[in-house]
Design brief:
This protein has about 260 residues and is mainly α. The protein is about 75% helix and about 0% strand. Strands 1-2 form a two-stranded antiparallel sheet.
């Protein structure tokens, strides 16, 4: 009984530490909501301009109208683009001395990383609201099932946590804002285009198909396409998508927890 109580106290304490970091990050967002609004412009342009033009050229993809096919891919792209530059905030924290205060706190490093990942998930959800509204205006056949909406939230949060933590790892390696911005810009386009976000994997050359299958974004898009659209389906399987995203997220959080303290060196 005593061991169970100690374990419960430890879990509660860990969750409190994670939430403290998450709440701190969300307060930053509350003070600068314009950041989310400006980042919403690009995915809206993708849907309203690129999506509608290509829809007239291609018609359908994977058995659904191309604009419907594209909407979940643009949501995943939006989450990626927001999350991949999340690591620059860690560099700012180091330069301002905030990171040093984190490092001397008794919180485990994994709690610090997980807290930041959760706050990134909230940012991703704000993008999801924008994309859903835009897709509805464009008459995309969206699913209205509550279960699908909850699964969409899960996919957005998982993919946002994954790519923001990956971004943190990059920040721990490069350690300067200039290098980070350059690497971030180099990474986003290959990850996006080497996925199933804007075209089916079946249309890719064989070598690019292999890249797409090892690209975590492909599994985020596949899952979102199945739960976001009324006629959506998941060629990979929803369980497979969630397992892959969950495993990769766990791996990057573990790596980031080991590398995070090096930012102060």
């Amino acid at each position: 009984m005593a061991d169970r109580r100690r374990a419960s106290v430890a879990v509660t304490g860990y969750a409190t530490q994670v939430w403290a970091v998450t709440a701190t990050e969300l307060r930053k967002l509350r003070h600068d909501p314009w950041e989310l609004l400006t980042r919403a412009i690009q995915p809206i342009l993708w849907l309203t301009l690129f999506g509608q033009v290509v829809a007239h050229m291609r018609g359908t993809a994977d058995g659904v109208p191309y604009l419907d096919f594209l909407a979940p891919g643009i949501l995943a792209q939006s989450v990626l683009f927001v999350a991949i530059f999340y690591g620059i905030s860690v560099i700012w924290e180091r330069d301002l001395g905030v990171l040093h205060r984190y490092m001397v706190s008794p919180a485990p490093r994994s709690a610090l990383v997980l807290g930041k990942a959760l706050s990134s998930g909230v940012r991703g959800l704000s993008q999801a609201v924008v994309i859903y509204l835009c897709a509805a205006v464009l008459q995309v056949e969206l699913s209205t099932r509550p279960g699908d909406a909850l699964l969409a939230v899960l996919f957005v949060c998982l993919s946002s946590a994954l790519f923001s933590t990956f971004s943190l790892i990059v920040a721990c390696i490069v350690k300067t804002r200039e290098r980070f911005m350059g690497i971030g810009q180099v990474l986003t386009m290959p990850i996006f285009f080497a996925s199933n976000a804007i075209y089916p994997i079946e249309l890719m050359p064989r070598w690019l198909q292999i890249v797409a299958y090892v690209n975590p974004l492909s599994y985020a898009v596949d899952g979102l396409r199945a739960v976001m659209l009324r006629a959506g389906r998941s060629p990979f399987g929803l369980a497979h998508d969630l397992i892959v995203l969950g495993l990769v997220t766990t791996v990057v959080i573990t790596i980031a927890s080991q590398m995070y303290p090096r930012m102060t060196e």
